[in-house]
Design a protein that fits this description.
699 residues; alpha/beta; six-stranded mixed β-sheet; binds 3-hydroxybutanoyl-coenzyme A
Length: 699
């Protein structure tokens, strides 16, 4: 038997223990080990029943995701699950930690299930672009009813043991020692003559899932899971469960699972699963680096961004001192925070008492002296170097030794900011994305002198406030904005070339972006981009560059906040504005920009390949540690759909050679200034390699 499985008989009950750290994934060795253990159980006269349990911190967390790109090794997971069910001796699954995906499917193959109260269960395959393909789409509806099963599989949500008990997914909660409790329960079941309950033989409760329900469900899904492939496949599996006999429906599940597994969506989403975990690993800052204590935080600036940042800490129970230049600004800021929390109360996401508790964690001040005790100070003032320098000079005077001094700059040179202090090793960038209390991304910017433990602390803080932290280096715009600028630049140029903004936005939206580039600019404010362009000190001299941003900003059309930008607004509804295209034509004429017929394909190429080309430079310069880090940034901070995998994974799936050829094509049209292929892109194109392979080789 595999060394990952232990088999022991205790008083007539066989205990089959899976021991495959860190999360007991169902690897080939574990599957084979389970198979062998079940054979042994069948032949073992000393065992009347069995308990399936796991060693370490969790029950089985699912199939082994690292095996999905390799040839399948027998026995397959569905076969193992079926073998559990077919056992002639009663088998009880004993769950602690998490039973996820193939883990819960294995448990549902067992005849009875118990769990400790703290256990969690779910079928999160949808997050990997998959469906529960080891009989889960057929078993969960039989235990929990069609509707509940569908909701769990489509959301990928994890539920606690109590909810699982109420839903009929488990039969018993075990307080105290799980192993002893499960053995005792198995004996009780035997003694009471409980039948061997095979889930596949149960009927499905479909009372609340008729044809009308599915029609409405699919309609909602088209909106909520726009563009994703797997959710629709899951719905088909549940429909098969309701309409077809078990075996036939299982064949449907297998076929649809294989389609999901082979899809680019699943490749992309699996890539992100590992990329998000890898992003937390910093090569020269080992996991053992002790983080500094962060028990209270100060935020300088109570505007929309500062308030949003403060809310993250308050939500994690960390007290925040909020500083503004004057009392009126402070009150405005606090009012906005209170309003945001009130909305949460109205929506039932928060209780009124919690709102007051949250507000009580905020200490407003206009006095820098009140920052003296803060462990972490985050500056969120106007994006202007001189102002930031003044703030850091002041912070250096008032903050205690060992305090971490962070800037929320989205583009500026952190080293210049750090140089204003006598402790540049304590200075770091923490770049939040708007709306700061919602967006998951936190770009953590490492300055030339930032200390390792300051980086470790910032990464730990990100996790504590439920953000995805990604470490980046210093350059104008860091990783995200630096790569976003070419995307914006091309959208802007296309407007001059005669492509209406709503068309570019629609093409980007259909590709999967949460919003098109023009809509994003209107939302953020065109003036923000205008100022950023002016702050970019070594910006190449090009009068065409983001010309429309300048013209519209100078006209006072700043976007949604002024009721007009690239679009005009009726409430929050964007309306195409023919006046804008008139201005674009006039500007194009003045600048000698030709009017062009541009295909949808070209729109995507110019938006994304320009971004990818910049990404290749960012990687070669070491501003991002790995291509996966860039991908994590774009799916968590820029509304790129997870099923594209992020810009660099997308590039690898298209092929760097094809991207490079397209970049050359645009270089021939527009010249070298913006379209010279990055040396790394050329190198990969020549070698027929990929960003991922390049990154692996450098490890
Ligand atoms: N396969 C392979 N490796 C896995 C894995 C899996 N299913 N789940 C986690 N790991 C690895 C992680 O990559 C990580 O590796 P690293 O230390 O080298 O970075 C390590 O295990 C620990 O994982 P986390 O850092 O995520 O640890 P946490 O304690 O934060 O979270 C967890 C634990 C909740 C189990 C989380 O890892 C998780 O959500 N795992 C994935 C669960 C999942 O999606 N299961 C479904 C798989 S698909 C499937 O079962 C298909 C079937 O239906 C046919």
């Amino acid at each position: 038997m595999s060394d990952k499985i232990h088999y022991q008989v205790e008083d007539g009950i066989a205990v089959i223990t899976i021991d495959n750290p860190p999360v007991n994934a169902m690897s080939a060795a574990v599957r084979q080990g389970c198979w062998d253990a079940l054979e042994r159980l069948a032949a073992d006269a000393s065992a009347r029943a069995a308990v399936l349990i796991c060693a370490g911190r969790t029950f089985i967390a699912g199939a082994d995701i690292t095996e999905f790109d390799k040839p399948v090794v027998d026995p397959w997971l569905p076969e193992v699950v079926e073998k559990f069910e077919a056992a002639e001796k009663l088998v009880v699954a004993a769950i602690h930690g998490a039973a996820l995906g193939g883990g819960l499917e294995t448990a549902m193959g067992c005849h009875y299930r118990c769990a400790v109260p703290g256990a969690r269960m779910g079928l999160p395959e949808v997050h990997l672009g998959l469906l529960p393909g080891a009989t889960g789409t057929q078993r969960l509806p039989r235990l929990a009813g069609a509707r509940k099963a569908l909701d769990l599989m489509i959301s990928g949500r994890q539920i606690n043991a109590k909810e699982a008990l109420e839903a009929g997914i488990i039969e018993k909660l075990i307080d105290g020692d799980l192993r002893a409790g499960a053995i005792a329960w198995a004996r009780e079941l035997l003694d009471s003559g409980a039948p061997i309950k095979r889930v596949s033989q149960l009927d499905i409760d479909a009372s609340d899932a008729d044809t009308a329900f599915f029609a409405e469900y699919e309609q909602n899904l088209a909106r909520k899971a726009r563009g994703f492939f797997a959710p629709g496949q899951i719905v088909k599996c549940v429909q098969a469960a309701l309409r077809e006999p078990y075996r036939e429906a299982l064949a449907t599940e297998r076929r649809l699972f294989n389609e999901c597994k082979a899809s680019t969506h699943s490749q992309a989403q699996r890539h992100l699963f590992f990329a998000e975990r890898e992003a937390a690993k910093i090569p020269d800052v080992p996991k053992t680096t002790p983080a500094r204590e962060v028990n209270n935080v100060a935020v300088i600036g109570a505007g929309t961004m500062g308030g949003g940042i403060a809310m993250n800490f308050v939500n994690a129970g960390i007290p925040v001192t909020l500083l503004e230049v004057d009392q009126a600004g402070l009150e405005r800021g606090l009012g906005v925070i209170r309003k945001n929390y009130s909305i949460a109360v109205d929506k039932g996401r928060m209780r009124a008492a919690q709102l007051e508790q949250a507000m009580a964690l905020l200490s407003p001040t206009t006095d820098y002296a009140d920052l003296a005790a803060a462990d972490l100070v985050i500056e969120v003032v106007f994006e202007n170097m001189d102002i930031k320098k003044q703030v850091f000079t002041r912070l250096d005077e008032v903050c205690k030794a060992g305090a971490i001094l962070a800037s929320n700059t989205s583009s500026l040179d952190l080293n210049q900011i750090a140089a204003m202090t006598k402790r540049p090793e304590d200075v770091i960038g923490m770049h939040f994305f708007a709306p700061a209390n919602i967006m998951k991304l936190l770009e953590i910017v490492r300055g030339e002198h930032t200390a390792g433990d300051v980086i470790a602390t910032a990464m730990a803080v990100a996790k504590r406030i439920r953000k995805v932290g990604v470490l980046v280096g210093v350059c104008f715009g860091f990783v995200g904005n630096r790569m976003f600028f070419p995307y914006i630049r091309e959208a802007q140029l296309m407007m001059l070339e005669g492509v209406p903004p709503q068309r570019v936005d629609q093409v980007a939206f259909d590709w999967g972006m949460a919003m098109g580039p023009h809509a994003v600019m209107d939302l953020s404010g065109l003036d923000i981009f205008y100022k950023l362009n002016n702050e970019w000190q070594d910006r190449p001299d090009d009068p065409v560059y983001c010309r429309m941003t300048s013209v519209l900003t100078e006209m006072g059309r700043l976007g949604q906040k002024t009721g007009a930008g690239t679009y005009r607004y009726e409430g929050r509804k964007a309306m195409p504005d023919s006046q804008v295209m008139d201005i674009a034509r006039r500007e194009a004429q003045a600048l000698g920009v030709k009017q062009l017929e541009i295909s949808d394909e070209e729109i995507i190429e110019r938006l994304l390949y320009s971004m990818i080309n910049e990404g290749a430079r960012v990687l070669a310069e070491g501003i991002a540690i790995r291509p996966g880090d860039i991908d994590v940034i774009f799916v968590n901070g820029y509304g790129m759909p997870r099923y594209r995998g992020g810009p660099m994974k997308y590039a690898d799936m298209i092929g760097p050679d094809k991207i490079c050829a397209a970049v050359e094509k645009y270089r021939a049209r527009y010249g070298d200034l913006w379209w010279t292929p990055a040396p790394l892109l050329e190198q990969l194109a020549r070698a027929g390699s990929s960003f991922q392979a390049w990154s692996e080789q450098r490890k």
